[in-house]
Amino acid sequence: MPVHAPSVAIVGSGFGGIAAAIALLRDGITDLTIFEKADDLGGVWRENTYPGAACDVPSHVYSYSYFQHRDWSRPCSPHDEIHDYLKEAADAFGVTPRIRFSTEVTRATWDEQALRWQLELGDGTTAQADVLVPACGQLSIPTQPAIPGADTFAGHQFHSARWDHDHDLTGRNVAVIGTGASAVQFVPSVAEQAGHLDVFQRTPNYMLPRRNLAYAAPVRAAIRHVPGLQTARRGGMLLMMEAMVNALKGNRAIGAVLRTMSWALLHRHVRDRELRRKLTPQFAYGCKRILFSSYYYPALTRKNVELVDTPITQITADAVVTSDGVQHPADTIIWGTGFDTQAFVAPMEIVGAGGRTIADAWAGGAHAFYGLTVPGFPNMFLLYGPNTNLGVGSIIVMLEAQARYIADAVRRLRAQDGPAAWDVREDVERAFDAQTQEHLQQSVWTQCASWYRNEAGRVVNNWPGYMFEYVRATKALNPGHYTLLRAEARSSSDEAVSA
Ligand code: NAP
């Protein structure tokens, strides 16, 4: 029986938070609570319900390695299928009863005496935990650019991550602003409903084909019943993704194949030369996220759709105005303008040792040891933290590795003879960050502006290597990388747990 059983507070119940809870529970660490601000689990798969929302990473790899679902309806599953899968996983591993729904953690403060996190909750109450695991995602805070006049728009407007399903688009004059991964998924559906659709593009993206047809019954049956087929498919897909990483690392042959596929897709679907010109990217392949759709370009060629690439200058009560003075009438604006990708834990405030906030620590751009730990924030382990996003690959692979690392850290705390805390050494984190940034300097991501970089040009979001390199490097916590803080023994009343 351990002398001290650490309590764990996880913030967020998306793929990351659930993965952490599963890893901890599998290690017998049962004193854990997931705080979830919404009334349902699911993270981005709860929030993004726009028409056509689907993962563009195949479900056989966009799923936990230890909880393989054998009956996906199609290669890249729609959001509700993924959301259901995550709920099933949470139920199967006993996570669901440990989620405190409708409870937002507004502030977490490190108590240096007690070696414990003090949590302030949205309902005005408090909680405590030995270990804090922010699992807030990188794509959870929708953003909308400050375009003059947007607040004077008299029609209806909403962000793609807050889709208003009660607003019927049939016959309407719709303006879609933004042409990223979300927009290319919902534009084909909006184009079918709208009377007229203007798609406002600032930068064209590279696209690869994806028809994503439902599996034929025999294929579906084979995946279900042929032993090893699912595992082999998963392995093959992961290998293919790692091969594509080569293109981002400058492999010319693979880059040329992918570029040719994108070029062919554009030429096959867009006959009009002017439209093709507008859709042709002028930046290095892979610098921004490569998009996948076989339906987006055809949607733009419809009679009721116009692609506008002149910059927007203003929004009026009933139009979007571009710099050439043209007023584009609209009664609905859909903002497909992405997310605040670099706040990582916001709007939660985190105050570490010496009263230093995480916002201060990250003033020049967020950084963390393998995206997991930050000096001066003991016993805080981030999921999907800085420099852990992938240009190509399955984020679930990264999240599983992080969850396993966190479970290892907590297991080692449990083996101590009293309260203790891991504080990553500043020199270790600094050296890791310098090396990561050096690798990133050689990547394609430094060659254009994207949500991976901050205004100073630092690549804040992405991991520079292969998935397998990250998994190998985070297999276990190396105590040499950390200072182990110890506290005076607590009174027994202090030992009461997280929430
Ligand atoms: P995004 O990729 O950040 O795209 C935002 C779009 O808004 C871009 O086209 C951007 O143009 C445009 N924009 C921003 N400010 C603008 C302005 N002032 N005027 C005009 N246009 C403006 O956001 P997202 O499409 O929501 O996707 C975010 C990420 O979510 C993706 O990269 C992906 O990782 C993830 N996602 C994944 C899936 C999936 O299938 N797994 C699906 C959807 C989203 P610029 O390019 O010029 O900045």
Quick rundown:
The protein has helices spanning 15-26, 44-47, 79-92, 181-193, 217-225, 229-248, 252-269, 273-278, 296-300, 358-361, 395-414, 426-441, 467-473; strands at residues 8-11, 32-35, 99-100, 105-111, 116-121, 126-129, 131-134, 156-159, 173-177, 196-200, 207-208, 291-292, 305-308, 312-315, 319-322, 327-329, 332-335, 349-351, 420-424, 482-486. It is 30% helix and 16% strand.
Radius of gyration: 24 Å
Give the overall form: globular
The CATH homology group name of the largest domain? FAD/NAD(P)-binding domain
**Structural class by SSE content:** alpha/beta
Instruction: Based on the coordinates given, report the CATH architecture of the largest domain.
Output: 3-Layer(bba) Sandwich
Please work out how many helical segments DSSP would assign.
13
Biggest sheet statistics: 5 strands, parallel
Spans where pLDDT lies below 50 across 5 or more residues: 491-499
Quaternary form: single chain
Q: Any ligands, ions or cofactors bound here, and which?
A: NADP nicotinamide-adenine-dinucleotide phosphate
Q: In CATH's first tier, which class of the largest domain applies?
A: Alpha Beta
Q: Strand content of the residues, in percent?
A: 15-25%
- The percentage helix is 25-40%
Overall pLDDT score: 95
* Strands side by side in the biggest sheet: 8-17-9-10-13
SS elements, strand count: 20
Can you tell me the CATH topology of the largest domain? Answer: FAD/NAD(P)-binding domain
Q: Can you tell me the number of structural domains?
A: 2
Distance between the termini: 22 Å
